[in-house]
Amino acid sequence: MPCGRSMKRSPDLLRLADTVLLPGFIGTTAPDWVRRRLAGGLAGVVLFSRNIDTPAQLAALTSALRAENPDILIGIDEEAGEVTRLEARTGSSRPGNYALGVVDDLELTERVARDIGRDLRAVGVNIDFAPAADVNSNPDNPVIGLRSFGPDPLLVARHTAAWIRGLQSTGVAACAKHFPGHGDTSVDSHHGLPRVTASRDELAEVELRPFRAAIEEGVQAIMTGHLLVPAYDDELPATLSPRILTGLLREELGFDGLIVTDGIEMRAVSARYGLGGASAMAVAAGADAVCVGGENADEATHEHIRDAIADAVAEGRLPEERLAAAAARVRALTAWQARAVPAAGGGDGAGLAAARRAVRVTRRTAAGVLPLTAAPHVVELAPETNLAIDKGMPWGTGEPLSKLLPGTTVARLRQDDLHNGVAAAVLRRAADRPLVIVVRDAHRHPWQTDLLERLLAARPDGIVVEMGLPGRTDLGAVHIATHGAARVCGQAAAEVLAGLA
Description:
Layout: H1 11-18, E1 21-23, H2 32-39, E2 44-47, H3 55-68, E3 73-76, H4 97-103, H5 106-122, E4 127-128, H6 153-168, E5 173-179, H7 200-205, H8 208-217, E6 221-224, H9 242-252, E7 258-260, H10 267-285, E8 290-292, H11 299-314, H12 320-339, H13 350-358, E9 360-363, E10 377-381, H14 398-404, E11 409-413, H15 422-429, E12 435-439, H16 446-458, E13 463-466, E14 478-481, H17 487-497
Parallel strand pairs: 1-8, 2-3, 3-4, 4-5, 5-6, 6-7, 10-11, 10-12, 12-13, 13-14
Antiparallel strand pairs: 9-14
Helix pairs in contact: 1-11, 2-3, 4-13, 5-6, 6-8, 10-11, 13-17, 14-17, 15-16
């Protein structure tokens, strides 16, 4: 149909706009508005932990969604480790990417991803917004960190490919993210616009290597990062940039699969362009599906975005042909999933094995500290986590250790809990007992480092367990680095402390 104001918000155009939207919603059952939209051609939905209670409930939910339209995308962020939706209430049974990179066993990485894919397919999810293919070259990065396979682009590239191979062998589409690479940033794109200052040559050598590997492996989707990359576009974030999505990703790198946006409500793009404006600009730039998650999970928000995309077509800012091509790529992905023949076999419990192999122990005292022979006092220092991580997700070493050493006591402290007497209070509780201090990214949180040093000054026999990115490993009589805060990482550390590993 011809473009022009006469077709503004016509029923056909509104339906076409719906075919590129992946909204989230509240609740463990599908709201009426979501079911109506799916029946009318909505591309699909994005699920969060707020939508998940049990595997049986989730399978029933996805079945109800597909009853409205069998050819939809049902997506989720299941990276394992710190970013899990399936296991947000229990903590992940698989470590995240960083631990897998430390082990550096491609077969193991593939097994872990295959395990995830089997679980996702069993509950009706057909696209996983993972793996993170970012190279974590900035240790102060507040949002990537453990979600990356590591700081070495070659290592990240080979594990990205292995992870994709494992997941897609189950018939679940992988989605490498956050293109063109969120690792060398110090700003969280949930809150602001990160800037990647690397040159084109530097980007080619570092950030883009894992995405090339993903494309060569046949990754079905790539997720955009809300990043300003002046080497390619000094004005528009990657999600909204034709130079990056079409020029770089499509034409230079040759990717022909689905391009999905990161959550369009994130402040890096929505603060300046609005939800509707950013969505229309993203599709015009080359994105094929727009994720709308976070708290913007109601029908009014969805209609606002859909209408903004339709208006952009009517006003000539978004060619209808581009919108139709995006819709066709959504359909192509659901067709791929329908044709996929999943690999045989069930889950093999690779997660705990991977977590155990990722533990690294540095001993400064030769004897008498490990294994623990008495129930210790464990103090866990809990930082504020980024929005990709569920706030209430269980983590730590104290709980699994208390099962191995009955009588273990556990205290968890946040920055707001600090006061002049907090160190003394911890030391009183640990008097005549072993002291275990659990930290998370201590190098990024001065309050953790300060309290840690005060405790160790009084208790040089103290044991440090770092469950984030390892910074200094010379702290404590023994330093244990788990390279992750997943439930299995805590279990693996507890086994070391109790002498079972």
